[in-house]
Amino acid sequence: MEVKFMQLIRRWPDDAWSFAVNLGSPIGAKLPGAQIIALASWAADVGLGTDDGEPAEPPAAEETTPRSTYAPAREDPGSPTMMQKTIAPSQVAYYLDRGYDRVSGFVHRANEIAHLTSPAKLHAALGLGYQGSPFSRDMDEVYVLRWPAYRPSLYRIPYGGQSESAMRAMEGWVIERAPFRGNGFAPGESSDVIAEFKVDSIRLPHGAQVWRIGADDSETLVATLDSDAPAWKKTGES
Asked: Which residues lie within the region annotated Disordered (predicted)?
């Protein structure tokens, strides 16, 4: 029996079930059911929900129990999506004191991770425990950059793997170290399902912000970018 991938994920029966491909092989991969469901939702949002020749399905009945631990707030469709990148305390001075105004690497939609209000939560959900990482679960603070994504095409879904063969198996373009999964979602250890994007080095727009996230779940605006200078104006400065 032949089943198309879109048909499979759209009818995924239970988020407790995982999806395995070539399990045990060098290019094997395993996706938790919650990520499969999130992928199906994303595909429907961008118009990939119905295969050619297949009648559209009626809308599903509203569920009384959410499938994930957090439901992000909907953004205004007329406004640019706010993005966020976690940065270590050791990197903050490079931005604030030297006027650095660029960002690159893995980033996330700010509304999808607004509930990650401590260094430990960010560490667990975003897969920040990679080898040589400047992050740890017990940090007193981390910092995040937040900015509006005026050019969405710059933010690509990082399909790929941890080796060239794994990247080819995913028909992707990214090779990264563990815990990178290459399926478009952050490789976290928590139950959160968070879309992940990769961006080449780009300039942050005027009004970008640096926030401090404390271990006590506190959140403090540290500075705002004045791109005309360019310089970061610290909160409280005249």
From this structure: 48-83
